[in-house]
Amino acid sequence: MTTTARPGGDGDAGRDRTVPWFPDATVLGYPRIGANRELKKAVEAFWAGRSELDDLLAALESLRRETRGRLARLGLPPGDGSIPGDFSAYDHVLDAATTLGAVPERFADLVAEDGTVDLPGYFTLARGDGERAPLELTKWFDSNYHYLVPEIGPDTPLRYGDDRLIFKFLEAAADGVTTRPVIVGPVTFLLLSKPAAGAPAGFHPLDRLDDAVAAYADQLRALGVAGAPWLQLDEPALVSDAWDVPRARVLAAAERAYGALAGELGRPERPALFVSAGYGPLGDALPVLARSAVEAVGLDLVRGPLPPAAELATLARKVVVAGVVDGRNVWRTDLDAALGVLERLRAGIGEGARVAVATSTSLLHVPHDAAREKHLSRELRGWLAFADQKVEEVLLLADAVAGGREAVATLLAEAAAARRAGRAHPGVRRAGVRERLAALTDAAFARAPYPERRAAQEARLGLPALPTTTIGSFPQTAEIRRARAALRRGTMSEAEYRQAMRAEIEQVVRLQERLGLDVLVHGEAERNDMVQYFAELLDGFAATEHGWVQSYGSRCTRPAILWGDVARRGPMTVEWTGHAASLTDRPVKGMLTGPVTILAWSFVRDDQPPGETALQVALALRDEIADLEAAGIGIVQVDEPALRELLPLRAAERQDYLDWSVRAFRLATSGAPAHTQIHTHLCYSEFGAILGAIDRLDADVTSIEAARSRMEVLADIRRAGFGRQIGPGVYDIHSPRVPSVDELKELLATAVAAVPPGQLWVNPDCGLKTRGYEEVTAALEHLVAAAHAVRATLPAPERGEISTLS
User: Fold this and answer.
1) Residue 148, Cβ neighbours under 10 Å: how many?
2) In sequence order, what are the beta bridge partners of 151?
3) In terms of C-beta density within 10 A (0-12 exposed, 13-18 middle, 19 or more buried), how is residue 262 classed?
4) What is the mean pLDDT of the chain?
5) H or E element: which one contains 703?
6) Are 376 and 325 in contact (CB under 8 A)?
7) Residue 723: predicted pLDDT
8) How many Cα atoms occupy the beta-carbon half-sphere of 434 within 13 Å?
9) DSSP state of 301
10) How many CA atoms lie within 13 A of 441 on its CB side?
11) How many CB atoms lie within 10 A of CB 199?
12) Region 284-301: what's the mean pLDDT?
């Protein structure tokens, strides 16, 4: 498969003829859930016992075939590796772990004699079973995608044994499509892993680099035998300096890994290697890859600037895959600016530059097709580019590179006109919002001192030690979803819908009273999503109908589109929270989504700094908290699960982000009087790096994910001397398993040993929306029982007065 000239491309001037042709245009990955969430439906039907394994395998094969066909119809040639082979049945990091046989000891029975894990076993690793906790779940870099954390110890098996990647390549080849297999690279895989239970002090998964590289080498040989011309190895870890090992060690690992995989293995023994980073600039990792024998290097030129000319010149003998189309947002590309970047890139590399046009990252972060959003105005649709439109943009840019701007002049002009129209829309800038922000003083960002607040809140609420609560949502039942669908269809009136939601709220309140929870919630039956609900009630947002993206596994979300200045039309939650409070004598929390999370889980306008947009959202939330307080609600939770998620991957950029994110939260919450207790919630991230910022939020109570990690975060909290109240989650809601009372007591005992009992709350890791009532009821019964048991062991002065409310 030697290089040949391709019509409209660069030809083969200056090419190394041992390198196969790399396409002029490609994407680094494509949404794998299906345009109609076929993956979700097939997998969940199998889990529920409504289908057999053969049915699931057939559905997955059909989805892969449809994806390849769709990309070919959009214009990616099926025969040259343009189409990525990146499909996953659950998670690409779990794929890498099972490919290497890296299975924790507690799941050793899932591994066959040949080192493989079948699909049911694969799902067991992700979801747990019985008393076996699943792999930990956390955020993929600074995105809202969640990956499963491999557990690597000194003796964890690392050997190539699973040929699923080859199977999918051959499956495509049988259909006449030559795909480019995609897998997480060895350095990123090890840096994303955590030490396995029982690993000696000082051990780091990166200590197993040589073993991992040997397993990867075996896989490369197998792909070579199968005839794969290219392999894409995703190494986004190289753009970050946030790891718990020195940067120099990360760079040395990359040099060692690709020295072995690209230098010691020659072609055609292996495929040509394309190392993609994405999510930011490679920085000092670029020279490492330039010196290596890898045949192609990907640059994220959306999140990172064009490297200096001297560095570009070192890439002259490689294919440079230029990520100039944003893989993480939904706005149309500024094609003129992107072409300028491509032109400067080619000039910097020099004569014979081999440049391919691509997305900056995989498109798994964006929905499938903006053309399906018929309910949006034609004007707004004209500003948008979902995955399919981004494929078209990549192809258009490649045509412009090959044939000159004049070859696509009409299309460039249309795209530029659409972008100009978006900027000129009257809703993009609202004078009232901007004038109110300009008038703010420092007093708008500060509350009374915490000791004063704590005393006022204790007097108002009268809670016991280790108070129990939930994070907010209760299961979204089929009845709730049917009612919401009927309202959309017009077969249920607004009054009937509101009555149905009020009835659901009453059931949730009564259940919590029976369970014995100390602080109740209304259950959020009326909310389709914790961001979309607010987006539909705020000016400046638009909601999609089909804009699903994968959050983790089979879980999908529809991010809102934040396109203009944000303003509140009126109260958004008071009716529902007030109704719940009217049904009980126990405290009820008002539930809001925080400004940073609303930004993180939306597709946000790119024409102003995000900190300015966050303050606009914060003003709307500040008004909502004032209305809740006026309605007699004494506790308000402002969820910020995405606070850690948006933390920049480079240390030099973090302080600015933390400053504006803390400022936005404080603007939202600092209007509350001292006797109103402000909670916040953060989940599924590593918190050690931002404990200072969490402290500066100045929330009275902070709940955090801690169950899957077995309370690991508490060591950081203890060292930081965190002085306010904390609720480390004890019930992992992302798994269907119900933890036992003894398991929860053990976690609580660990918490009590690390944090003064007077500061501790007892709660699940996250909201209960995705779970079923049977498991939720059992788990919360166990949670309350465990809290009471541990509360009884405390010295009398630390138990607090058990109020009549409990």
Assistant:
1) 24
2) 194
3) buried
4) 92
5) strand 701-704
6) no
7) 87
8) 8
9) T
10) 1
11) 18
12) 97
Provide the 3-class DSSP secondary structure of residue 290: helix
Distances (CA, A) of 612 to 302, 383, 607, 609, 657: 21, 21, 11, 6, 12
DSSP 464: P
Give yes or no for residue 8 having a pLDDT over 60. no
H/E run at residue 297: strand 296-300
Quote the pTM value.
Answer: 0.89
Among 247, 186, 246, 178, smallest CA distance to 214 is for 186
Helix (H, G, I), strand (E, B) or coil at 178: coil
Dist. CA 368–CA 379, nearest whole Å: 19
> Residue 139: what are its φ and ψ, rounded to 5°?
-80, 145
How many residues are recorded in the chain?
A: 806
602-605-606-608 Cα dihedral, nearest 10 degrees: -120
Interatomic CA distance for residues 228 and 169, integer angstroms: 7
**Tokens 């269809």 appear where?**
489
Instruction: Provide CB contacts within 8 A for 495, sequence distance 6+.
Output: none
113 has pLDDT over 70? yes
Q: For residue 298, how far is the Cα from the chain centroid?
A: 22
Q: What are phi and psi of 138, to 5 degrees?
A: -150, 175
CA distance 471 to 701: 12
> Which two tokens mark 238?
């190289």
pLDDT tops 90 at residue 795: no
Examine the residue annotation and report whether 734 is marked as an active-site residue of this protein: yes
**193 vs 6: CA distance, rounded Å:** 41
Cα 504 from chain centre: 30
- The catalytically annotated residue of 146, 365, 681, 734 is 734
Rounded CA gap, 47 and 42, in Å? 9
